[in-house]
Specification:
InterPro entries: 2TM_dom. Pfam families: 2TM. This is 2TM domain-containing protein. Keywords: Membrane, Transmembrane, Transmembrane helix. By secondary structure, the chain is mainly alpha-helical. It has three domains: about 45 residues, no CATH class; about 60 residues; about 35 residues. Helix content is about 75%, strand content about 0%. The chain is built from six helices and no strands. Helix 4 packs antiparallel against helix 5.
């Protein structure tokens, strides 16, 4: 390869790094993106197809957003469990120290609970693979069903309220 020729991978890496170094630009418009692509000899169709891969829309975008929410929720739950683990085991340590300083019994719940917490940490760190997909699918289905049930309940309540509405006093029968 000659000195002034680059592979597509090198071009991609060089341009990516140049954009990182030229940090005065935070965003580019679609027109600017297409103009850059034309200068590089790329077809508009190829750029638009790549855009769909990078920035999904519709159902794909909804699923991508839901995945991020699922990951964030799992991490939040882990943090809550970690705080409980530290607080409870610190309390058990103090009780052990005050009641039976010769026998360190607090180590047993510390280790048992710690193994469970370690397994949860491993599970939370996984953001792809079949187990992750199964857990996400289960979470997403539960969330969808809850939303659907909530909408149905609201609709039923609205109908019930409407049917119980008192008739207007336009025909007064108590004369």
């Amino acid at each position: 390869m000659r000195e002034n020729e680059y592979t597509p991978e090198e071009v991609q890496a060089i341009l990516k790094r140049a954009v990182e170094l030229d940090d005065h630009r935070e965003r580019f418009s679609r027109d600017e993106l297409l103009a850059m692509a034309r200068e590089l000899g790329l077809s508009e169709e190829a750029v638009l197809a790549a855009e769909q891969d990078v920035r999904p829309t519709g159902k794909a975008a909804e699923l991508a957003q839901a995945r991020q929410e699922f990951i964030a929720e799992r991490r939040q739950e882990f943090k809550q469990h970690l705080v409980a683990y530290v607080c409870v085991n610190a309390f058990l340590f103090v009780i052990n120290l005050l009641t039976a300083p010769d026998f360190w019994w607090f180590i047993f719940p510390l280790l048992g609970w710690g193994m469970g917490l370690a397994m949860q940490a491993f599970e939370v760190s996984q953001t792809e693979g079949p187990k992750f997909e199964d857990a996400f699918e289960h979470w997403y289905t539960r969330r969808y069903v809850k939303k659907r049930l909530k909408r149905t309940a609201v609709s039923l309540i609205e109908r019930a309220v409407d049917s119980l509405a008192l008739p207007s006093d336009s025909t007064d029968t108590h004369k």
